[in-house]
Specification:
The structure is a homodimer. Chain A has helices at 6-13, 17-24, 32-45, 51-58, 80-95, 108-119, 137-143, 166-179, 195-210, 224-237, 249-261, 295-310, and strands spanning 63-68, 99-104, 125-129, 148-151, 161-164, 185-189, 216-219, 243-246, 271-276, 289-292, 318-320, 323-325. Chain A is of the alpha/beta class. In chain A, helix 2 packs across helix 3 (32-45), helix 5 (80-95) crosses helix 12 and helix 10 (224-237) crosses helix 11 (249-261). The structure holds a DNA duplex.
Amino acid sequence: MKRPTLAVVAARAGVSKSSVSRVINGETTVAPEIRDVVMQAVRELGYVPNAAARNLVTRRTDAVAVVVSDPPKGVVSDDPLFSTVVRTVSRELEAVGRRVVLMLAESDESRARVERYVAGGHVDGVMLVALHGADPLPAALARMGLPVASFNRTAATDVPYVALDNAGGAELAVRHLLDRGRRRIATITGPLDLYESRERLEGYRATLRDTGRRSIVALGDFTRASGAEAMRQLLEDDPDLDAVFAANDLMAIGALRALHQAGRRVPDDVAVVGFDDIEAAAYTMPALTSVRSSMADQATATVRLLLALIKGGPRKPVIMPNDLVVRESS
Amino acid sequence: MKRPTLAVVAARAGVSKSSVSRVINGETTVAPEIRDVVMQAVRELGYVPNAAARNLVTRRTDAVAVVVSDPPKGVVSDDPLFSTVVRTVSRELEAVGRRVVLMLAESDESRARVERYVAGGHVDGVMLVALHGADPLPAALARMGLPVASFNRTAATDVPYVALDNAGGAELAVRHLLDRGRRRIATITGPLDLYESRERLEGYRATLRDTGRRSIVALGDFTRASGAEAMRQLLEDDPDLDAVFAANDLMAIGALRALHQAGRRVPDDVAVVGFDDIEAAAYTMPALTSVRSSMADQATATVRLLLALIKGGPRKPVIMPNDLVVRESS
DNA sequence: CACCCTTCAGGGAGCGCTCCCTCACCCTTC
DNA sequence: GAAGGGTGAGGGAGCGCTCCCTGAAGGGTG
């Protein structure tokens, strides 16, 4: 039951602890025969280095905290963002031999826990996911001097991030609707304390402004339910609208449902375009036109950014391009 | 930049390291005035205990590994299972002050990594999620003597688990369809190396058998695409079927789409029932009837099971009940 | 041939913490 | 008033590892 230690391996191999340590850590200044005899002992004993002891002296942890900000209610339990990002990030980090410590930051309490944990030097870096604009966490973490990279932009200007070209994506969507001859194009926004929501809204507004059309805006919070609710609101306020650009696909799905319930045909009466191109977008009826932005690619880019930061790389943001996937809903 | 140590705090407070340690660990045998002066010093210095040093001596880690088995292709990137389970588990574990180390077990390599990591004694327990029947990991982990709890049943008989009443849920679904007057009821199964798939299939079969009807089975793998594909297959093989029970909602969504494309009306021509009652189920058109089984509750139960095991509790499985949510698709 | 330099193994301090043990002190009790 | 018991603080060993330093041995050079 008791795990063998370095000393035990050294004794077994008939060499010093130092030599075993060198072999374990892949140092090159070891004679091949010592290497072999050590490896043999390691194998026989099933030796696994004790990470705690190692961390204690090296002050490296080989671990990265992945901090996900959850809406307090936690309703969007099947938000693809979470799965895709967390999964991709884990995969990437594991591939380079780093541990992933997952932390949720959904309450002040859990935020404090994250701060304490990170302050405790238990991780080499932090990756932030989906933090609200007003969240004090990014700034607090950045202040600690630890490498921090954010999936999407945050209010903390000194935190390097990977974001989409949100305004550009919105423009793509709106121009597409205009090309299709739509004239009253509404939008359903995400929560406006999120940068991506604001940027998508701004892209929508700017594009309409450029073509002399007015904006019709309803607020959502990136959930299906909010999309449905916003859509009902829009139909009430402006029964003549003939297109909707939803700031994410989940809300577009909600909008689709609300339109159906209101007896509007999609795309005949109202065209719908979403954002993110999640898998579900291809399975709505009618299938959803959406701005494609590979969350997986963005997640990968964020991991790479963080790893570069840990190695001392430059703190500069990365912007990912996106394009439009046209399906039946527009 | 250098973090203060216990010794520094002790010096500052004018007491011994032992006393500081006692205060930090909440021992009761400390005089209130010493408590106060220590807490004061801790606050002033922003002291955070070094977990590595602590783990080294206590041999506890306060960490739990959450191991998620991914399909190698990783297609189901917005599978609600992942979000819901991982999120709920994190929340529960953080609430009791435990770290969550997330690990993916999708390849032999990553499986070996998990095994090595767990063998290294870096965690106090392991929670397994969505492991395939043939996966050698559960048994391997159980052999290490470390507490292991599984979300859903696995082939390793000595690993305690929390599962749904899958057969019962399937029976609920099929009986409902029979009550609605359906006579040719097909099913789309999940991957058959998963216990829950087999149990749902068995529940379906048994219920039909009891009423003297024959089974019509198509294989899926829990993804939307497989559901659509299986549905097309079923329609081809048995054009007269009037109902489908899909072993999960994602496949039901795919089936819905395939039915739509084949020109069948739901529920008029073909009734559809899913399993899991994910959020998306309420947003399909028509809205999906589904067997409800709170994944969040199941996840919570699994965490509690694991925590109980760590405390030395009994290794007995837990079965969760489920019920049927009737919507428009049946 | 003597000397120096390089290469590489071993010794051992020390990372920050816990926990056992010792010991001082105070309160009872007879 | 002395002895005994209990309470609670301090001292210090040691957890398993890395990494600096020392020193032995071998090879090259003048």
